[in-house]
């Protein structure tokens, strides 16, 4: 299996500057998409102030329990998937599936197996602590429609972040530096910076980013990191929505250490799965297929040019 971090270099169309162009387009498309979501949601609800508060309030006002809240906060992140796909289509010069894995795109078998591991290793301990070892300090926050929307959009929000931070950015740094550990640190650092927590919380997100990158590196794709990301976020949202605790930008060391222990355990299990050959199956050699098609197009153009010159 090709190394995931340096995989872009396998493509004949690779140029060091292409990720910069993709990033610029991604930022533009993402900004426009979020503005559209805010505008349409405000128009539909007639409450522009509430929508703006949801969009700009951070974790202290995050609403993952009502349809409007889910669409504005989580949907506003999930749109990064089509934004990245469009940016890559314009400037990336490689298949979008190559951001997913170096095994030929998304593998649902790997994803669901990793998700089961993540639920057992990470979700269950969180549920035990939140539900059985702490007092229920609030009323149920969910609306029925909000619960359904969260169940649909919540996982997409996690996968979107994995595409950008573990797929796009980790591969970008890996292709530039050709040092996997450096690509992991850079990607994790950016992942931490965009989360509006206190310094302890940012350090905790950095640790999570490192473990997610290791999961991706071991598995050769983002399915494993998406699984643990979904398990962590959805468990937190479900327990919080049922009134167990509150979400805050102020994080303490106990919660950081608690989560890091289980994320580290999950990463060790993913590494063991790698050693057992769980990620060895190659669905499709994206680079070989792409390079063959590209060379065929070049040869066709050269033939057409020679025909014109001969005439």
Polypeptide structure, described:
The chain is mainly alpha-helical and 311 residues long. The chain has one domain. The chain is 73% helix and 0% strand. The chain has helices at residues 18-45, 48-56, 67-78, 80-92, 97-100, 108-132, 144-177, 180-193, 199-219, 223-241, 253-275, 286-310. Helix 1 packs antiparallel against helix 3 (67-78), helix 1 (18-45) runs antiparallel to helix 4 (80-92) and helix 6 (108-132) packs antiparallel against helix 11. The protein is globular.
Q: Summary?
A:
The chain is mostly helical and 311 residues long.
Quick one: overall form? globular
- Calculate the mean pLDDT score and round it: 92
- Flag low-confidence runs: none
Number of helices: 12
* Alpha-beta classification: mainly alpha
Strand content: under 5%
Rg calc: 21 Å
Largest sheet: none
Reading the helices and strands in chain order gives HHHHHHHHHHHH
List key phrases describing it:
311 residues, mainly alpha, 73% helix, globular
Secondary-structure topology with pairs:
Elements: H1 18-45, H2 48-56, H3 67-78, H4 80-92, H5 97-100, H6 108-132, H7 144-177, H8 180-193, H9 199-219, H10 223-241, H11 253-275, H12 286-310
